Amino acid sequence: MTLFEKIAAKVIPAKILAEGDDWIAFRDIAPQAPVHFLIVPKRCIPRINEAAPSDAALLGTLFAAAASTARQEGLGESGYRIVINNGPDGGETVPHLHLHVIGGRQMTWPPG
Question: Which has fewest Cβ within 10 Å: 22, 26, 38, 108?
Answer without folding.
Answer: 108
